[in-house]
């Protein structure tokens, strides 16, 4: 069983520690002063240790500390203890200043992420979980539009086919959530790619064509889906959708030259 070392003792660290434990993982939680976690350890059964001890013990690490302390905590955990391990990062790059008019301050620049800064400085293997589509767009800037688009569309088709198999089960609901991510993840990538591939003086009309095509799809799609459902049954619409996405992918795959990001 994977040993999960949580680096961070506040609400996020404690919540994730309990969540991992509930799902059957062996968990330890780290802090500069593990003694302060005595009552948490007593109620949860999760042992506490220093960042170094937990970093060394964990096979998978979760970084759940204040963003300003992230570098310091990884140093305390010890480079040899996190090198080669997956580090799940929950930190936000927030300063310690209070919000101004409800707006929090970040210490990273507009095109910089704390995660990448830590990865470069600390040689991390990272896994991030994001609900922010800007992250997908940023990834596509680095990995390449075509790769992200083809990957997302293939994943969408696979999820749709899996939905047809799992209709009525709790898995179906989980798949709906995953489907939403892949479907919407493609949109900013398509838009960015389109703008790069279009001469500047035609940017307006190309975006107009894109939005127009989306509107036509939105108008015709439900009608076609309804017809398929009436004729061949509800599950057939999932296969129908999966097939249309595979066909759409066939238009993307032959594009030879991925334009520079
Ligand atoms: N991804 C998300 O959806 C989400 C949601 C909420 C919060 N967050 C982020 O999750 C992280 C944890 O949030 P939180 O509210 O649980 O905790 P927090 O109050 O932001 O940070 C507490 C943790 O940071 C460590 N720490 C603080 N200052 C330090 C320093 N100078 N040197 C070393 N360690 C220091 C503390 O260590 P000790 O144990 O030694 O005191 C403690 O473990 C934050 O970055 C927050 O922005 C993410």
Topology:
Elements: E1 3-7, H1 11-22, E2 26-31, H2 38-44, E3 48-50, H3 51-57, E4 60-63, H4 70-77, H5 79-82, E5 86-89, H6 114-122, E6 125-127, H7 133-143, H8 145-166, H9 170-197, H10 203-232, H11 234-252
Parallel strand pairs: 1-2, 1-4, 2-3, 4-5, 5-6
Bound molecules: NADP nicotinamide-adenine-dinucleotide phosphate.
NADP nicotinamide-adenine-dinucleotide phosphate binds next to helix 1 and helix 4.
Structure notes:
By secondary structure, the chain is α/β, with parallel strands linked by helices. It is built from eleven helices and six strands. The chain has a six-stranded parallel beta sheet, with helices on both faces. Strand 5 (86-89), helix 6 (114-122) and strand 6 (125-127) form a beta-alpha-beta unit. 24% of the residues are buried. The mean pLDDT is 83. NADP nicotinamide-adenine-dinucleotide phosphate binds at residues 8-13, 31-33, 64-67, 69, 72-73, 90-92, 94.
């Amino acid at each position: 069983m994977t040993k999960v070392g949580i680096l961070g003792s506040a609400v996020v660290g404690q919540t994730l520690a309990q969540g991992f434990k509930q799902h059957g993982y062996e968990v330890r939680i780290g802090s500069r002063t593990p003694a302060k976690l005595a009552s948490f350890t007593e109620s949860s059964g999760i042992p506490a240790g220093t960042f170094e001890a937990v970093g060394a013990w964990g096979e998978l690490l979760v970084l759940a500390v204040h963003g300003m302390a992230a570098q310091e905590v990884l140093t305390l955990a010890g480079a040899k203890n996190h090198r080669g391990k997956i580090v799940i990062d929950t930190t936000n790059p927030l300063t310690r200043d209070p919000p101004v008019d409800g707006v929090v301050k970040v210490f990273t620049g507009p095109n910089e992420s704390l995660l990448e800064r830590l990865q470069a400085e600390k040689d991390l293997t990272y896994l991030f979980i994001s609900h922010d589509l800007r992250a997908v767009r940023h990834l596509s800037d680095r990995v390449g539009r075509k790769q992200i688009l083809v990957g997302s569309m293939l994943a969408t088709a696979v999820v749709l086919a899996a939905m047809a198999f799992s209709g009525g089960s709790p898995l179906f609901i989980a798949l709906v959530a995953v489907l939403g991510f892949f479907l919407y993840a493609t949109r900013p990538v398509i838009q960015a790619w389109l703008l790069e591939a279009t001469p500047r003086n035609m940017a307006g009309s190309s975006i107009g064509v894109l939005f127009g095509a989306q509107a036509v799809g939105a108008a015709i799609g439900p009608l076609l889906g309804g017809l398929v459902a009436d004729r061949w049954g509800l599950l057939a619409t999932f296969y129908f959708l999966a097939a249309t996405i595979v066909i759409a992918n066939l238009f993307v795959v032959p594009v030879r030259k991925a334009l520079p990001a």
